[in-house]
């Protein structure tokens, strides 16, 4: 079913027509797609996937992932890393994060798991100037469709009790798919962090290259001979 839906659904970034929802689109690609992420880094990425897949450990998994993304400097932590606000009472910088960032990250992972997963991935995409693979977008769309279907079936089951078994089945499928996709997403982000650290780009500076043209002592731009050179600087 998922394979057929992947062929039907769009692989374009997920955005709202009114501009309220926008997906960051960088110049680089993730080192691995979500589908292959659990096996991309061997046992390490597999364990990250399993940690998010198991409901009992998904909260602590997201807390540990956020610590990894922030290079274990929790002074940089804010609720959902400022990516979005869940409601009027849960906003970045207003949840006491500066006093107990690890506890807040754990609570975020436990009670707003979907938002924690998305925030970590979006933050990583912005930090390293990344864009998603079309297949990733399709998997996310399938998950969103299943969650909506589960919600509608649950409402229908309230009105018509005979639909409860069907609603329970749809909810089970939706939950299974969510934890599978979010597990792959978690493994993908962890693998990307490992790669960026391995090339000495933990801070994300290497993705922003500025070309500086050389000028001579006379203030004129020299294009030929030994007067001309381009210098690539990181910032």
Automatic annotation (TrEMBL):
It comes from the Eukaryota. This is Uncharacterized protein. It comes from Spumella elongata.
């Amino acid at each position: 079913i998922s394979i057929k839906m992947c062929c039907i659904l769009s692989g374009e970034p997920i955005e709202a027509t009114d501009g309220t929802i926008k997906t960051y689109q960088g110049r680089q690609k993730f080192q691995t797609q979500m589908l292959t992420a659990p096996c991309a880094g061997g046992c390490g990425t597999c364990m990250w996937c399993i940690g998010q897949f198991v409901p009992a450990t998904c909260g602590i998994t997201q807390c540990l992932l956020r610590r990894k993304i922030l290079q274990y400097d929790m002074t940089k932590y804010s609720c959902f890393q400022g990516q979005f606000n869940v409601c009027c009472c849960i906003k970045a910088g207003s949840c006491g994060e500066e006093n107990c960032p690890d506890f807040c990250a754990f609570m975020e992972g436990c009670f707003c798991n979907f938002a924690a997963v998305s925030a970590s991935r979006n933050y990583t995409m912005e930090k390293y100037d990344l864009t998603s693979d079309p297949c990733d977008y399709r998997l996310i769309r399938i998950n969103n469709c299943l969650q909506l279907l589960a919600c509608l079936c649950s409402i229908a089951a309230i009105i018509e009790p005979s639909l409860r078994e069907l609603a329970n089945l749809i909810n089970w499928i939706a939950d299974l798919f969510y934890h599978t996709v979010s597990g792959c997403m978690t493994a993908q982000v962890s693998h990307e962090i490992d790669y960026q650290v391995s090339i000495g780009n933990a801070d994300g500076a290497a993705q922003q290259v500025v070309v500086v043209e050389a000028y001579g002592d006379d203030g004129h731009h020299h294009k030929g001979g030994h007067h001309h050179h381009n210098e690539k600087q990181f910032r």
